[in-house]
Amino acid sequence: MLKAIGASLGIAIGRALVIREENVEINEKKVLDSQHELTRFDNALKEAIAQLEKINKDVKEKLGSEKAEIFEAHLFMLMDPEFIGSVQKRIGNDKYNAEYSLQTVAEETASIFELMENEYMTERAADIRDVCKRVLNILMGIKVASIAEIQEECILIAKDLTPSDTAQIDKTKILALITEIGGKTSHTSIIARSLELPAVVGVGMGIHEIKDGDFIVVDGEEGIVIINPDEATLKAYETRRKEFFESKNQLLKYASMNSTTLDGKTVELAANIGSAEEVENVLKNGAEAIGLFRTEFLYMSKNALPTEDEQFEEYKSVLEKMSGKPVIIRTLDIGGDKELDYLPMDKEMNPFLGYRAIRLCLDRTDIFITQLRALVRSSAHGKLKIMFPMISNLQELRMAKKILKQCKDELKSEGVLFDEDIEVGIMIEIPSAALISDILAKEVDFFSIGTNDLIQYTTAVDRMNEKISYLYDFYHPGVLRLIKTVIDNGHKAGIMVGMCGEMAGDTKLIPLLLGFGLDEFSMSASSILNARKTVTNSSYEECTKLTAPILGFGDSDEIKKFIEANSKK
Amino acid sequence: MIEKKAIVKSETGIHARPALAVVKVAAKFKSEVLIVKDGNEYNAKSIVAIMCMAAVKNDEIIVRTNGEDEEAAAEAMVEIIEEGLI
C-alpha cells in the first residue's frame, strides 16, 4: 500500500498503465544532402502541426478555449517564420542534421526567455522546449504513448503530467491518475478535480512498486494506492466506489437549485477559494458567490511580494469568471501560522495574538496600498467586495477604510475606472469585535464570521495543541451565543451577515445557523451540494424554534444531543 | 510602406497571451508587418520575435507595414495593440 496526497476525490479500481519518459540524446552531425534533411524537417513539422491542431480542437471542446490557448501558442511557434527560419538556415547553410539544428535554435530561444525578468516570459521557455520535443520525437521516430489513443480502461501512472498530456485525457478510458511528484495545487491535481477523476499525487519513489498491468485500487480522498489487493479489500472498495457514485449522482441535482428553504427563505451558499484556478470547480458545484478569497496564497507562491499588476490579473480573472456573482476578497492575512519567506518576521511568543493580518497591513501600508489598488482596479470587472481580517476595534476599521479611500481617490485622479460603491466588510473572528458588532455594523456593508479563529480566541484553545484540542468546540454555548449576537447586531443595522469557517459547511449545524438568521454560508466548494441539500430540505420556521432552547443550554453535549434529536424528526 | 505609432496600453505589456493575439492579427495580412521598438525591428508574424520584444505598458512602438494590404494591416495592428489586449 502506498500513502501519498489525495488530490481528487473518488475511488477507482483497474489496471495500471505506466507512462515512462525516455531520455533521448541529440547528436551533432553534418549532412551531405541538406535538401533531403530540410524535407525531413518540414515533414516532421507538418506532422507536429497536425498533432497540435487535433489536441487544440479536442481541448477546446472538452475544457474550453482558455485552456486550449497554450496549444494555439505552440502551433504559432511551429509556424513562426523567424524561429523555423533559423532552424532551416542551420540545416541548409550550416549543413547540420535536423535534430541538432532544431535543438540548438530552441535552446537559444528558450534561454532568451529565461533571462527575462518577467515571470510570464520565463515560463515560455518551457513551451519552446515542449514544442521542440514534439518535433524531435517525430524526427527520431520515437513513439510517445499518446494518452488520446488509449483504448482500454486504465489508471495512469506517471512522473507528472504536462498540459498536453492532461488535455488528451478521455474520461471514459482513464479511471484515475497517480503521479510521482506534485501536490494538491499542481497542474495534474487541478485537472483531476476539474475532470472529477480520482487522483493521488506526490507518491515519490514508491511509485516504482507499481508495474504496468498491476491491478490497483486508488482512493483519492485518503491518498491511498493498493497494489494487487486481496479479495476482502477489493470488495470493500467496490462497495465504497458504488456509494461514492450514488451519493454524487444524488447530489448533482442540487447544483442548479436555489438555496431556498421549504418555507421560502433564501440564503446564499458561497465558496472559499485560494486562487483563480479553483473558480471552475466553484461554479460546477453551483455556488452563488465566493464568500472568501484568501489572498495569502498569491503571496506565498512567489519569492517576492506580488506586484499590483500581478494581483490585479488574479483578482480580475476571478471576478470575470464569476460573471457578476459576488466575490468577497479578503486582504492579506499573513502572520500567525502563515509566513512569507521573503518577509522575515520576528519570532513571537504568541503568533496568533501577534503581528498579523490587518495589524501588519496597517503598519506596512506599502504592502496594503499595493493590494488595495489592485483590488479597486479589479472592481471594474465584476461584483467585488473587500473584507478586512482580524479587526479587533473600531480604530483599525476606520484606519483601513481611510487608506482604501485614499487609494480610490488616487486611482480616480489617474483616470482609472472602477466600481464607486465597492462593499466593504470585516471578518468577525475576535471576541472584542463580536462584542461591539452593533457599533462596527454601522460602518461596514457586511460581516463574515470567521469561526476557526473566533472559537480559538473565545475558548482560549490552540487548536493545534493535541492535549487540549478537545476543548476546541463548535458547540460551546459561549461561541454560539457570540455568533447569535453578531447576526442580530448585523441585522439591526441592515447588513448581511455571513460565515466563512468550517462551521458554515457542517450539515449538522446548518439548520441551527439558518435559525439564527445567517444570510450567507461560505465553505469549500465540495461541501456546497450537501449544504444545499440540507437547506432545501429544512423549514426556516422550524429552525428558528431551535434557537431559544439552544441558547439556554450550558453544556455543549446537551446542545449536540438536542440538534441530533431534532435532525431525526 | 506605412508607419503608424502605437502605445502599449495592456497592464502586463505584451507577454505570452497578448503576443498570440498580435501575431494572429498580423498573420491575416499579406503585407510584411514589423514592429519597431527602440530602433529594433520585430517580425509581427513571429510569436517568438514578439515575445522577445518584451514590450511593457506605455511603451511607444511603430508599426511598419509593406505590401498590397499595408493600409488595413497598419490600422488593424494599431487597434489590437492599443485596445485589443488584456
Could you explain the architecture of this structure?
- The complex is a heterodimer of chains A (569) and B (86).
- Chain A is an alpha/beta fold and 569 residues long.
- Chain A has three domains: 2-19 and 146-251, Glucose Oxidase, domain 1; 34-139, PtsI, HPr-binding domain (Enzyme I, Chain A, domain 2); 265-568, Phosphoenolpyruvate-binding domains (TIM Barrel, Alpha-Beta Barrel).
- Helix content of chain A is 48%, strand content 14%.
- In chain A, helix 9 links the parallel strand 9 and strand 10 (289-294).
- The model of chain A has no long low-confidence stretch (mean pLDDT 91).
- A four-stranded antiparallel sheet of chain B has the order 1-4-2-3, with helices on one face.
- In chain B, helix 1 packs antiparallel against helix 3.
What would CATH call the class of chain B?
Alpha Beta
Any idea how many domains of chain A? 3
CATH level 1 name of the largest domain in chain A: Alpha Beta
- Principal-axes geometry of chain A comes out as globular
Count of strand segments of chain A = 16
Shape of chain B: globular
User: Element order, helices and strands of chain B?
Assistant: EHEEHEH
Biggest β-sheet: strands ordered side by side in the sheet of chain B: 1-4-2-3
Largest sheet of chain A: 8 strands, mixed
| CATH topology group of the largest domain in chain A | TIM Barrel
Fourth-level CATH superfamily of chain B: HPr-like
